[in-house]
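Quick start: what a row looks like.
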Amino acid sequence: MPEDIAGSEQMLSNWNQNIQERAARYQDMATRVQGMTISERSSDGAVELTIGSNGILQNLVINESASGKRMAEVSGEIMKLLQRAQSKIPQLLQEAMAETIGTQDETANVLFNEAKKNFPAPPAEEPAATPYDRNEINFRVEDDAPPPARPTPPPPPRRRPPSDDDDDFGGESVLT
């Protein structure tokens, strides 16, 4: 019987040691991930941003070169860069997991899949417009074009037709 107790104590000791080692690896992974940042820059350098590993914006720089752009373009560029940066979070998380807890860990896979769900790949970028895209060539002969529609004037006010009512005195007083 004492051998069984000694074996049980050894098993508990090993189990406790495995739990502590695993907890230390998870803590190491969490520390690495918390310190990670992702930066993105627009192709023309007008907008730069940095996010943390949680996907939250940490820094945004809009350079003077953006002053000639419409605000809708600038805000669209910011959102595109933010999505692009956030879509890199799952890959960073997977790299940190591989270095610390391993990719075979069930909990690690749950974390990775959750990150992929929360930070999906950004939509495909549209090809850059060329000057030829903005200028259409019109082969239509102008004489063939229908004339522009003229606005129609409002109809004239309607007048009441004269009536043969006995009550109507032709607009004159009854006393005259």
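That is the whole record. The radius of gyration is 38 Å. The CA atoms of residues 51 and 57 lie 4 Å apart.
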